[in-house]
Design brief:
This protein has two domains: 89 residues, Urease, subunit C, domain 1 (Roll); 320 residues, TIM Barrel, CATH 3.20.20. The protein has 15 helices and 17 strands. Strands 1, 2, 3, 4, 5, 14, 15, 16 and 17 form a nine-stranded mixed beta sheet that branches. Strands 6-7-8-9-10-11-12-13 form an eight-stranded parallel beta sheet. Helix 9 runs parallel beside helix 12. The longest helix has 18 residues. The chain starts with a strand and ends in a 15-residue tail after the last strand.
Length: 484
């Protein structure tokens, strides 16, 4: 079975060029660029020959890019399936152009054993609609499990160096040292200093009692708390030569810290092997800042907290400069009624896996990033950081994970955006054309995003067509080049 995606604008490996992609079975068979032909007529003749024996998708006026690899999601299964399941959240991912994901271990029970990890892999094989891998959770006492995990199959070990769910907080200095010394897996860390957060919370609780405003969130879970913990993690990674990925960077000071590590290195894309320490930020830290709490309230409460406009600007610059290598969502669904509780009771987390690409493309429209930068940070660099085999690029022989999006005209932008497919049923974009339903049944919708995901292919199978799920499913575990 062959599929020809013809006459799209291909965004890949730092270039934007008109061309076509031929898929055979699960992989990319051929990439045909118009500029590689001496005459335009020869390009059209080539397409005519391929069209005769292929299913054809006309991508004229559309942008063709690799499928997004989201290396940081919380799909809630097992233990909190009222908020999300592997099936529901992977479907939402597809509608956002995400073809592969890596799910975190703070489930119930916490995924800290190889047996529990095996169960998650088995569940994904049955129900996931996107390619997958799972993190093993670190605890104060499971070093043996970490050492036995398969680096070719398991994306990494997640270390919570700040408050977390269940028994996943690693607060033993000895345990931390041993994990950084011994892990063959990439170590990914949530870095916030608990003592700093506790002291800040005590201060605000004394002043406001049970009525702490949501605007205090970035002052309680402060920039200092993030920086202090990130310094500690990076120091250990350097000491032991560990492969380390700093998760959801939210502050200018952390970006400055990371910049000092890269001053003598070649750019990441050209020499990623030199980068044992890498870092991500999330789309909400590039989109929102602390002035938005008044408008969005708990809908944008997350951990680490969204911080100042100055932090947001610094993160945008750090991403452009290569100080931050990747963008991942930290997709974290909660029932809307839980988010509407008072600040102290409302959980932290935002469901963004369906909207990360259109958010980043909106920033392209605003001149913040280029299309090439978005593809680099959301597709290429995740594959390089995690050493994913045969994904993240449009290359002949690679798996045909492909996302196609198109600009939307000014008319009826809101109506052209898919509604939230996450089981929680809401998103924070009440003024960006994305719907959510309150308990009263009220529907909120204003203007929309400028682009829409139109087609998505996973392993050569079309899983999204016309911005809707096709119901087709062809997924695989992610494989990692662990020997590099």
């Amino acid at each position: 079975m062959q599929t020809l995606i013809k006459n799209g604008t291909i965004i890949n490996e730092g270039s934007v060029a008109r061309g076509s992609v031929l898929i055979k079975d699960a992989r990319i068979c051929k990439i045909i660029k118009e500029k590689d032909f001496r005459r335009y007529e020869d390009y059209l003749l080539c397409l005519d020959k391929l069209s005769a024996c292929s299913k054809v998708i006309d991508a004229t006026g559309m942008m063709v890019m690799p499928g997004i690899i989201d290396t940081h999601v919380h799909f809630r299964e097992p233990g909190n399936t009222i908020a999300g399941t592997i099936e529901s959240e992977s479907k939402a991912a597809l509608l956002g152009g995400v073809t592969s994901y890596m799910d975190m271990p703070n489930n119930s029970p916490s995924c800290t054993t190889l047996e529990l990890l095996k169960q998650k892999f088995e569940r994904a094989a049955e129900t996931s609609y996107a390619n997958y891998s799972f993190y093993l959770g670190a605890s104060n006492s499971n070093l043996g499990e970490i050492e036995k995990a398969e680096p070719k199959r398991v994306c990494g070990v997640k270390v919570f160096m700040g408050a977390s769910t269940g028994n996943l907080l690693v607060d033993s200095e000895k345990a931390l040292q041993e994990i950084f010394r011994s892990s063959k897996l990439l170590i990914a860390a949530h870095c916030e200093d608990n003592d700093e957060i506790a002291a800040n919370f005590k201060l605000y609780a004394a002043n406001y009692r049970d009525n702490i405003p949501v605007a205090a969130h970035p002052l309680i879970r402060s920039a200092k708390a993030c920086y202090k913990s990130s310094c500690k993690a990076i120091e250990m990674a350097v000491k032991y030569g560990a492969r380390f990925h700093l998760l959801h960077v939210s502050t200018a000071k952390e970006a400055e810290l990371l910049a000092t590590l890269y001053t003598a290195k070649a750019p990441f894309g050209s020499n990623s092997e030199d980068y044992k320490i890498t870092a991500e930020t999330a789309p909400h830290y590039l989109w929102f800042n602390s002035t938005d709490y008044e408008k969005y309230g708990n809908l944008i409460k997350c951990n680490p907290a969204i911080k100042s406009a100055e932090d947001m600007a610094a993160l945008r610059k750090a991403l452009k400069d290569g100080v931050l290598q990747t963008v991942a969502t930290d997709h974290a669904p909660h029932p809307l009624q839980a988010k509407m509780k008072p600040f102290k009771e409302a959980p932290g987390g935002i469901p963004l896996v369906q909207y990360s690409l259109v958010m980043m493309l909106e920033l392209v429209e605003q001149g913040v990033f280029s299309l090439e930068e978005v593809v680099g940070k959301m597709c290429h660099n995740p594959a390089l950081c995690f050493r994913i085999k045969d994904r993240g690029f449009l290359r002949e022989g690679y798996f045909a994970d492909i996302t196609i999006f198109k600009p939307i005209g000014e008319d009826s932008l809101a109506e052209q955006q898919p509604k939230p497919a996450s089981l929680c049923g809401w998103s924070p974009f009440t003024e960006r054309g994305v719907y959510y339903n309150s308990d009263s049944g009220e529907k909120h919708s204003l203007t929309g995003f400028s682009n829409r995901v139109e087609y998505v292919f996973v392993n050569g199978t079309m899983v999204v067509e016309g911005a809707s799920l096709t119901g087709e499913r062809r997924v695989l575990e992610l494989e990692f080049n662990a020997s590099e």
